[in-house]
Structures
1.
Amino acid sequence: MKQLNYIFLIFTLIFAGCDSDDKLIPTELPLEISEISFEATGGTQEIELGLGSDWQVTSDKDWCTVAKFGKFLIVTAPLNPTIAVRTATVTITEAGNCGSVNITQTGSKFDTFPEKVYLSAWVEEGWDDENDCETEEYNYYEKVVERDFKGNLLSETLGSLQQHADGTWWIA
């Protein structure tokens, strides 16, 4: 009878520990790559991950687009029109396990926009060069000049270029 109680106790412990609602704790997904870099001009990189076919990928930034093609991760970064370096994190999930890849893109040497360049100009009118002083008609102002890459003037706007902390520009 004592042996029967021990057997009953062992089976109770075994079955009590096997609850189908138990969640597995996610573990770090081992990836062979941890960082991808792009030049300011942008581009696309394809990386073979060596994972099965059932994995998902997301990016935390809109400018960094990602896609899955079989065992390949495809990351695309467009032209970075600012001088600021920008970063994104790509998250890859497979069978409840997660891994991440850091994406870095260098900034442009000067702020460019497709087919345009913006320049800040400082204008002084009414300056007497001979006497090196202001005249009564003296006027100082700043303007933003927009040109295409052929040098053609597209527009002039009064104000100056200002940069936000996130790297975007505005005219004050």
2.
Amino acid sequence: MASTVQHDRFRKPGHSLGQTKLLLRRSLKHLVNALADLCAYGVAFVSFRDNLDLSTPSGRLMFQIIGAMAEFERSLIQERVKAGLRNARAKGKKFGRPRAEVDALRVAALRRDGLSWSEVGRTLNVSKGSAQRSVRSLPNSNVLLGSAV
């Protein structure tokens, strides 16, 4: 619906915008604003699948009720996901990709041998950033890191 509203050639009074599947907006406010834009251009919205004609008062009421229920359902899902994440964290579950295990002493030795950060990464099969991060934990790491970091 939003892509149609953006093009002037579709904004002609008396036209109807027909849609076979009703895709609801992000929020009820966004939904109402999108419908108001269509109405301002004299374009009626008709959803064939849901049998909604938004040119009638009863059609607009039903559309807003459906939008409100969709927003409510989306909020419930967000609450459940957040609660699940909290429970998992409380049980000690770690999220995200695990950090690469890098031998900082080996990285330091390779750097002392004159290898670049990219070459060190390729040699140890880790990224350049992981190699640099591992060396930061060592004492006197600023000598190994140099000004290139």
3.
Amino acid sequence: MPRTAQLATFIAMVLSVLGAVHWSVWVRLVVDPAPPAALRRGLTLALIVLFLGIPLTFYFARLRDLAARRFLTMPGYVWLGAVFILLVLIVSTDLVRLTGAAVERLVADVPPSDPEPSHSSGVARPWRRSGRGSGPWSWPTCAFVSIACRKR
């Protein structure tokens, strides 16, 4: 395979990945919130310009003038880092939501337990109370919050 064909294949693959990243950020941050039409068009145009600015960044990085190179490449590199951070946040949020949905489905399939068994000692167990804020994880949560919020 000639060198130019290899380079064209590589550039096409990189631009495809960058396009997919920008598309996912666009869908999650522009389309899903459903902003007004003018804002949506503006954000869409901004994402397209930022996407097209990344290949220009790599082109400008080959300039001989150091001051011009720094001035022209900095926005592209900053956007490349920012879009990566946005992608990581979006994917991690989706994973947390997916995990929560899976746990909710698993918990919904569990039959309700016996309501208040009789205790031989007669001592009430605080985690057996019903209502918000009760459960076996209430006191560890309160302990964690009190430790985290105390003044140092």
4.
Amino acid sequence: MSDFLKRRIQERDEQRRGTQETSAPASSFLQQRIQQRDTQRAESGYRAPTGTHKTMLGMSLEEYKAKLDEALAAWKSTIAPTERDLANPKEAQARKTYQTMRKQYKALQQRESEKQQAQAAQQEYDELRVADLNALKEKMDAAKESADGSAKERVVAGSIVKQKDSGAQAVYEEAARKYNLAQQIQYDERGAAELRKLSADQAAVVDTLAKIPYNGREANSAAARSIDEMRRKATKVLTDAGYSAEEIDELVNWRARQQNAQKYDAAVEKREALADKGFWGAAAATALSVPETLASGIGVIDARQIYGVGAVKPETRVDLVVQLEPWEDGRAYDRLGLTTEYCEILNVRVPCVTIPVGPGRNLAVILELAAMNNRQKGMGYNAAQKLADEHDRSIDLGIGF
């Protein structure tokens, strides 16, 4: 190794040691600033927003409402300016704590409402499962007669029509709903009991008949003949066990209803999972296997070949819905964006913005700006809200804006 290279290595090592020595006081200074911040937060009663949600665990709605009122009072106590007519530094912390707790209180209210609805539905199910169908039918017929008797003739658009009393009609519809629901519940309960009596082999052939129902058509192809043969073998197993044709049809119907209920439960679980982690949209299978699309005025293009594989995704999270509509003169549009509108996709709330457009607008730039602004809000920064807060604070302090 040359002497010049050795000297350069020594100089580099000395510089590194000097940097480490000078960085130690900076680290201690940072620790002091962190301790001062924690002390100020403890004195002001500040609680970090990321941990506030833990106070909801094991707490009733009334108890959390009391905590929310305390946070509101703490915020109001810090709104007054300091002696130098400057904004109180504790006000922003208290306001953020209150706003976070208020959002969580609304979420807790929603969960309590859903819980009460589920309990009411379960209670109604238990009552209708053992209800007397004849009594429910008599009640429904009486309500129907009352609704029909309340009908009065009125002239509407030059013709005479009979209009029923809305209250009597609502009573009849509720009685009819309960009667029909009780019929379905008791029918399914009876079917579940009969299906439990089947052996493993008999249950398997019932599943086979439920999956390949008879369509009434002649078997003209080899596949159709194979399906008919499977049905005949499955039916023979149940016939040999002593079941009649009517009983077999009823068993198959019960099993098909069970399968549909299982599919519905799976769809509900999937929807709840989507609601927990946001809404995800998946591209159609043809968008991946046959990526050519038709562009107006240009013809057929291949987006993957032109823009690369990065332009095509099998699925992505839907964070924002943008609705474009023609600009209307004289219509009041939201200029600040303080309120966030939502639209529901499969019962999942997704932020939605409506943008009026006209000829000559660069839609690509507008949509990109809307997406970036929504991403910034998700990261905790709302430019419109900050502008409004600064404006209100300046008005309260009586200083220029």
